[in-house]
């Protein structure tokens, strides 16, 4: 029987994240937070008390930890059971938080119930393959990226905001991400000026260039 290509890619992604240490992941997340990545996301997200937030690739839950007091409800999904276990420990006291193991774009929701969606530091091949995981990220992963963005946009409520960040590294790559890769991914994900307004920014945080896409869904 032929294997479903999407599931085959996701199995590789899951295995590659599965062997990474949650401690390392948390260390990197803390570094990015102190560099200002979360603050930048929050500025664009404009989180409110009534919001239901979805964090795709939530990692060890640091971002949710920082915002759970602001949002009404926060749901984190991650492909790695080991990383999610750490997130469960970090967030055990938070009554308005749920954590679900899921592999984007196959997400266990079918209605646009989220006012806010984040994909923070989308090193899992969303738009830009991460050299660290180069062995598994290739052209097909760009399609996966588009599928993730599209699935996330479909779950965004009217007037909702989605924020995606990634770290292109250099200024040149950042400009390419802003001018070509993200606009192209938006087009392929059927996110157009008819259904959304999109702002793409790049910024240097410590020594690395980051990119941020702010996508607001039109009613
Ligand atoms: C670089 S970490 C970022 C974690 C977190 N967002 C943060 O800012 O600290 C990327 C996370 O995405 C998860 N991930 C990778 N591919 C995924 C997929 N297809 N669906 C859901 N999660 C995924 C990994 O397990 C990892 O925890």
List keywords for this structure.
Rossmann fold, globular, alpha/beta, binds S-adenosylmethionine, 7-stranded mixed β-sheet
Description of the structure:
Helix content is 40%, strand content 26%. The protein has a 7-stranded mixed sheet, sandwiched between helices. The protein has 219 residues and is an alpha/beta fold. The protein has one domain: 3-Layer(aba) Sandwich (Rossmann fold). Strand 2, helix 5 and strand 3 form a beta-alpha-beta unit. The model has no long low-confidence stretch (mean pLDDT 90). The protein is built from 7 helices and 7 strands; from the N terminus they run αααβαβαββαβαββ. Bound molecules: S-adenosylmethionine. The site of S-adenosylmethionine has 21 residues, from helix 1, helix 2, helix 4 and strand 2.
